[in-house]
């Protein structure tokens, strides 16, 4: 990152932090009646929830904390909700991991601004009546407040990412946050349920509303951890397999990198990008069943050898479809040697019959194969490989994806 860019980022972080603190002071001054019970109960819940939150593939984390804080805003008003937000900023794990101080400042600032602006608008429209507060205008105020929080929260974070990575603001927002919208709507509905039951039946209802939410979040986090552990083990197997052959060492890692770059250029969402990277890491796992004497053969492969090699997409598919979260996209492995004109294998499907992920995987795999030395072919230079891709666009490769890869490669010359 350039010095100027770094300075801009620091100014941005400090501006967000001080704006958040000013907004907190204004809210405490303007809506001063803080509920100690509210701060203690909801503060404890958001503290637990945020410390059990789940890191996302690219940025930020998934936490149910908004649902709890927003319920607190509905019940007790802006001042109590702002103090609860302040508590939610302290993540023990971040301190243990020695997360840089400016990240804490930024998080504090952006949460305080988001809840602050959301509270001011919400409080103007919401009528706090005991028990049945779910009137039409109040529900409207809740959803408007929720939308304002989401937009402020994601826009401020997007601003920091686009400044630090010099990328388009809108693209960063779409890639990282747009897909969280349904989850945010779910949390808003949970906030309504939590506050309604709390007002109607008392604070013990938090045990049946917020706690299950936190437990669900914790279980989700464990699943993600398990998933990563499982993937790491499988990827290790692939690395060991590749390490035995000097020609394929590091192949899958590079294919995964090309797939990621192509997917970003095609504006796929973060979830799909994570899936395709995992598939790329595992795309040749089916070779595990091929006799090593064929894989390491230094003479041209005969027909029987080729028949053996051509089985690897099907074998790989059978393995990968057993991994629950990759099951739906595992056909990318089955079809990663299919060609647009139908001359590929194992099935000879053509054009749009080939899934998008398989088309991406195919071109990334082919480009890496072209640019690395193989037993009887020398590696092509980047320029030569670009010519090959252009020549085969529309017959071997999908023309649009070929254009995207060429654009990426030419940009990086
Ligand atoms: Fe392959």
Write a concise synopsis of the structure shown.
The protein has 413 residues and is an all-alpha fold. It is built from 19 helices and 2 strands.
Write the layout of secondary structure elements.
Elements lengths: L2 H28 L5 H16 L2 E2 L5 E2 L2 H12 L1 H11 L3 H5 L4 H25 L10 H30 L3 H8 L4 H21 L4 H38 L7 H15 L4 H13 L9 H4 L7 H7 L2 H9 L10 H4 L21 H15 L11 H11 L6 H13 L2
Antiparallel strand pairs: 1-2
Helix pairs in contact: 1-4, 1-6, 1-7, 2-3, 2-4, 3-4, 3-9, 4-6, 6-7, 7-8, 7-9, 11-12, 11-17, 11-19, 18-19
Description:
There is one protein chain. With 413 residues, the protein is mainly α. The protein has two domains: 3-224, Arp2/3 complex 21 kDa subunit ARPC3; 244-411, Hypothetical protein af1432. The chain is 69% helix and 1% strand. It has 19 helices and two strands. Strands 1-2 form a two-stranded antiparallel sheet. Strand 1 and strand 2 (61-62) form a beta hairpin. It is elongated and about 80 Å long. The two termini are 20 Å apart. Bound molecules: fe (ii) ion. Residues 283-284, 312, 336-337, 365 line the site of fe (ii) ion.
Most strands sheet: 2 strands, antiparallel
What is the fold-level CATH name, i.e. the topology of the largest domain?
Arp2/3 complex 21 kDa subunit ARPC3
Identify the CATH class of the largest domain.
Answer: Mainly Alpha
Radius of gyration from the alpha-carbon trace, in angstroms: 26 Å
Bound molecules: fe (ii) ion
Our count of helices gives 19
- Quick check: average pLDDT? 86
User: Which CATH architecture of the largest domain would you pick?
Assistant: Orthogonal Bundle
Q: Beta-sheet strand percentage?
A: under 5%
For the record, the count of structural domains works out to 2
Please list the strands of the largest sheet in the order they lie side by side. Answer: 1-2
**Helix content percent band:** 55-70%
Structural class: mainly alpha
